[in-house]
Amino acid sequence: MSKRKQHHPEFKAKVALEALKGEETVSELASRFGVHPTMIHQWKRALLAGASGVFERGGQKTLEVDEEQVKDLHAKIGELAVANDFLASKLKPWTGK
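The chain above was modelled as a monomer; its predicted structure follows.
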């Protein structure tokens, strides 16, 4: 039994755009790119559904910052820095530095 082929998003976009151009039939595109016509229809539908998101206000979405997690991570960094300094000072007599 063979695995299903995983196509890269760039490839899917290229095929879907070719389908939107309408210069070739879906069957011709399927044979040219080596995919099933149903996949081309799905990729074309997905491209059309997501196209409006490109023009939404605000451009790309900003990352949401979890302030509580940032505070915890800063505290952990401080703890690790103190532990590192402590261990480095305890190691000095053995290394001769």
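The mean pLDDT is 89.
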